[in-house]
């Protein structure tokens, strides 16, 4: 059983503590001290243990799109077997840029497709340390560009490292005719550690993700030093946030990345971009996997799917009104 830090004992309920204990039984807190292959092995085992069956009526198809480092695997989820969903959600998985893939977030993507009625496309971007920055970003951008050519509106979405990639693609693609219509970020890491944000101190020993973990993932992404002003690496490094797609950011209150999301939303609002920050009390990094065992996580996932639906439907309604 996880040692109950007195800082977190009153903030986290029994269901989330049970989720933390179960996660740690597969993926202990010291996992970052293991080799990368070992980290991937335990992460895959953990994801398999938490994985839920896909909802009925979701057609799933694996494919590839061309990328600068070779073909990029993707997985497409079509609700009701439809081949013409009105909106496509491009989803970038979490995993600190070193673990994860199409299977790690398969159930999450399928459930988003079922809840929203939108197509979801999961991107299996290249991982570190074999492929350093900007490889993951380039693959996410390539996926966006390939899917955008199909002509449907696109929402960029992702959790943790995937939230970073989704935001980076939105920054790059803004102003284009086919730019994303929305961005949905779940406990994203956006480079806030470079800004000295308070959550990196106040939540430094949070269950599921510590500030030490964040620094490990940060340092492994680059070989020749951390970029200081590269928004494709750290979206919060951008100088201008105007013209970006409407955004909803979900954060876990017990998470050193919490203030990344808050800061990103604040900067979007300062640039007159529609943005909303939803901070979930009592939740921890990675809580998507707790959505079937925790009422708090379940309700947050429902809010996430609702936010994706609003981002897609609001833009479509505005377009219809113009015509």
Q: What is the name of the CATH architecture?
A: 3-Layer(aba) Sandwich
Tertiary shape = globular
What ranges have pLDDT less than 50 throughout 5 or more consecutive residues? 319-323
| Distance between the ends | 59 Å
Strand order of the largest sheet: 1-2-4-3-5-6-7-8
Strand content: 15-25%
Overall pLDDT, averaged? 94
Sketch the topology as an H/E string, one letter per element.
HHEEEHEHEHEHHEHEH
CATH superfamily: Alpha/Beta hydrolase fold, catalytic domain
Short account of what is shown:
By secondary structure, this protein is an alpha/beta fold. It has helices at 14-26, 36-50, 106-116, 135-148, 161-173, 199-202, 211-220, 258-270, 295-322; strands spanning 58-65, 72-79, 88-92, 119-123, 154-159, 182-186, 247-254, 275-284.
Describe this structure in words.
- There is one protein chain.
- The protein has a single domain (51-322), classed as Rossmann fold (3-Layer(aba) Sandwich).
- It has helices at 14-26, 36-50, 106-116, 135-148, 161-173, 199-202, 211-220, 258-270, 295-322, and strands at 58-65, 72-79, 88-92, 119-123, 154-159, 182-186, 247-254, 275-284.
- With 323 residues, it is of the alpha/beta class.
- Mean pLDDT is 94; it is low at 319-323.
